[in-house]
Amino acid sequence: MASPALAWEPEGDVEILVTVGPGTSPDQLARQLQAIWRTQGTVKNNVVVTNKPGGGGAVGLGYLNNEHAGSGANLVIAGASMVSNKLAGRSKIGCAEVTPIGHIFAEYIGIAVHPDSPIKDAKDLIERLKADPQSLSIGIATSRGNSNHQAIALAAKKAGIDITKLKTVVFQAGSEARTAVMGKHVDVVPASVGSLVKQVEAGQLRLLAVTSPERMPGAVANVPTWKELGFDAVVSNWRGLMGPKDMPAEAVAYWEDVLDKTMQDADFKKSAEAGFQTAKLMKHEEFAAYCKTEEQNLSLILNDMGIGE
């Protein structure tokens, strides 16, 4: 009688690739997964985190596909920027060129101003941009066309504003953009809600709107959504786990199971809640379909922004 086939497991070290530098949100997620897998014992292999920043993700993603195509042990932390960077011509690799494994969480965007800003609320912001799209400077980290940029541009588009005329100032890091609006060097900064909460609670920033489909909890529960204000502008800077092109199906199934267990971890749930991250596991097929829809929707808004190849 033949013995049953053993379930697939990775061999050797497992690598989690991060296409941006240490200390960034994707890097923090990679190291959180590394720690949970070690603590849970979910992944028996040694797990290493490798940072390969540059080229709008092109450097790291090129390394993943060129060096590790077909591997089941090489992973990458992916996000909405993978889609926007491909559409904007900064990278040749998007969701279709790699293997989506699982969506982990969504980060929604808050629209922040200085507490003393003459902009009274979100509707006032839109009215000012309607009157003159270049009347306000908008600080964007870290590239035009990304989720932060979309968080204002999509609402402005719904209001009939020519979004190619919006005055944007690009910063290399989210901390630089926050510092700029707190110092009144720019008028508005859209950024992930989790990155803004401390300054909001300290009275250093004021939130006008959030891009979530429903109001968010806790310290930002009083902040309206764009949607409830009449602008259908839901924008998520999602995070997920992907593998290289041609990752074997059995490896995808293995990592789907690992993610399922990871997201049930109490520390993971606590961290997501504290970071205002909306955790939702989408497995391979659902995640791949979601990415495709994201690409179609983003293509339209980026075209309206005048961004793209």
TrEMBL record:
Domain of life according to the entry: Bacteria
SUPFAM superfamilies recorded: Periplasmic binding protein-like II (SSF53850)
| Coiled coil segments of this chain | none
User: Sorted alphabetically, which CDD domains does this protein's record hold?
Assistant: PBP2_Bug_TTT
**Sequence intervals crossing the membrane:** none
Q: What is any Pfam family matched here?
A: TctC
**Family of the protein in this entry:** Belongs to the UPF0065 (bug) family.
State the protein's name.
Answer: C4-dicarboxylate ABC transporter substrate-binding protein
**Organism the protein comes from:** Terrihabitans soli
